[in-house]
Amino acid sequence: MKYILLMFTLIFGGCSVKNYEHTQAKVIVIKSPKIKFADLGYIRNNEKSIELELFIAGKVIEKININHLVCVREGCMSKGSFNENYLSAFYPSDILQNILLGHVIYGGENILRHANGFEQHISNGHVEIVYTVAPHAIFFKDKKNNILIKIKDMQQRSDNEQ
């Protein structure tokens, strides 16, 4: 009986609702060969996982869950497979979660720190990246792979529109 209960817990525990410590509404722009999005989104995270929820006209159009795997509507895959299918196969496996959280990429390569953030310029035979993190905005652009990710605070958007 103990084993049946343990198996039940393991099988259905993985599908349980996650409790995220942080939830932030953002204006998100993602342009890649497979993803085109520009509207409201939510970034939720805790110590172990991140969820990016994308909305258009108030309806959820995509959820991207990142922990040891990346899960989208089509199913779950490794981070490397996600990069290969949605971004670029030349990216490190943790690049999307680092961008969403405003952390350094490529192990801090070519980092220039500023009073309120940092920027990185990474260029090699496979990527040409400009990555900037400021208190209310994140900007990632890879000219070689035609990938753009912009994330701004909702308040920042309202202030700029006035």
Structural features, described:
The chain is α+β, with helices and mostly antiparallel strands and 162 residues long. It has a single domain, classed as outer membrane lipoprotein receptor (LolB), chain A (Clam), CATH 2.50.20. Helices cover 22% and strands 44% of the residues. It has helices at 2-13, 79-86, 95-101, 154-161, and strands spanning 22-31, 36-45, 50-56, 59-66, 70-72, 75-77, 111-114, 117-123, 128-134, 137-142, 147-153. It has an 11-stranded antiparallel β-sheet. Strand 5 and strand 6 (75-77) form a beta hairpin.
Shape: globular
Instruction: Report the helical percentage.
Output: 10-25%
Strand content: 35-45%
Give, in order, the helices and strands: HEEEEEEHHEEEEEH
Sheet having the most strands? 11 strands, antiparallel
| Domains (count) | 1
> Radius of gyration in whole Å, from Cα?
17 Å
The CATH class assignment is Mainly Beta
Q: What would you say about this model in short?
A:
With 162 residues, the chain is of the alpha+beta class. The protein has four helices and eleven strands, in the order αββββββααβββββα.
SSE layout and pairing:
Layout: H1 2-13, E1 22-31, E2 36-45, E3 50-56, E4 59-66, E5 70-72, E6 75-77, H2 79-86, H3 95-101, E7 111-114, E8 117-123, E9 128-134, E10 137-142, E11 147-153, H4 154-161
Antiparallel strand pairs: 1-2, 1-11, 2-3, 3-4, 4-5, 5-6, 7-8, 8-9, 9-10, 10-11
